[in-house]
Amino acid sequence: MPGRVPSVKFLQRIQNPTKRQLIQSLTLAVWNTPDCEHFTDVLIKNPRHTSHSDSRPHITLRMKTARQAAEKSGQTVHVYYNEQTKQYEAFRLYSERKDDPKKDEPKEE
């Protein structure tokens, strides 16, 4: 579907423009895969990090369809990329769950 543009929001401020652009391009790479093209909203939660549930370095996204957004739920996505080349490698899409307002919503500034 050429011309589709998701609603993208950052949960954290990312001051470094190079890092911000990389995260945006990786996000769009995942969003344009057949498994994720049905999502309409994307929340970029965390830049490259590891977590207790995934020791492989990744970016964490929260993706939602229109229905999920209305029901305040969504799916977490871990995006993997090569640190040296900055090229997208893979992603892991987790099961749908209800939003956690403390973790899954942008802070008002």
From TrEMBL:
Domain of life according to the entry? Eukaryota
Which named protein is this? Uncharacterized protein
